[in-house]
Amino acid sequence: MPTPSTQPSPHRRRPSPPTARRKAKLALRPAAWLLVLLVAACNSAPSTGLKDGYFTAMAQGLDDKGWQEFLTISVTNGEITTAEFNARNVSGLLRSWDPVLQRHTHRTHGVNANAWQRLYANSLVAVQKPDLIEPMPGGRRLHAVFVALAQAAVDNSRLGREEVALVELPPNQFPNEL
């Protein structure tokens, strides 16, 4: 004989089995919420006007130290997702791979050019606008170059132009800096 605690209560109503209509409503509820969230996300995201793809801007010639700077950005869903800022010399060597230069700039400036290049590139991904990036102490020349290249790459993205933008860089106002 069942104990009183295990006997069904006569006052408690058993849930009725779900009907086909109720099953359909329950099945559509998650899809409806997902649709609402997607519409809200699309409407709340500001339009940057950037087209998806890879866009590169490059200095027109070599700088006074023999490097030609370039910046490549990747745009996905209208946002800059990656940025590579670097330079090549006439032999094709990347500045970030030049150990002699990295040691020299670390010794003379306390930080190497590679660190500034990564910092400026990561800042562009974070703020999405070249003119909002602040110059680092000792890296003002590199900052001016970066902003000019970044603006050209962003402009190419807005226009959907995938060819390399050649940029005439501003004159070096900071000869003792990177």
Order of helices and strands: HEEEHHHE
Measured distance between first and last alpha carbons: 90 Å
What CATH architecture of the domain at 53-167 would you give? Alpha-Beta Complex
Question: What is the typical, i.e. mean, pLDDT?
Answer: 79
CATH class of the domain at 53-167: Alpha Beta
**Strand arrangement, largest sheet?**
3-2-1-4
Counting helices, strands and paired strands, the structural category is alpha+beta
Envelope shape: elongated
Report on the structure:
By secondary structure, this protein is α+β, with helices and mostly antiparallel strands. The protein has a domain at 53-167: Sufe protein. Chain: A (Alpha-Beta Complex). The protein is built from four helices and four strands. It has helices at 20-44, 99-109, 113-127, 140-159, and strands spanning 53-59, 68-76, 79-88, 165-167. The chain has a four-stranded mixed β-sheet with strand order 3-2-1-4. Strand 1 and strand 2 form a beta hairpin. Helix 3 (113-127) runs parallel beside helix 4 (140-159). The longest helix is centred in the N-terminal third of the chain and has 25 residues, at 20-44. 22% of the residues are buried. Residues 31-41 have low confidence and may be disordered.
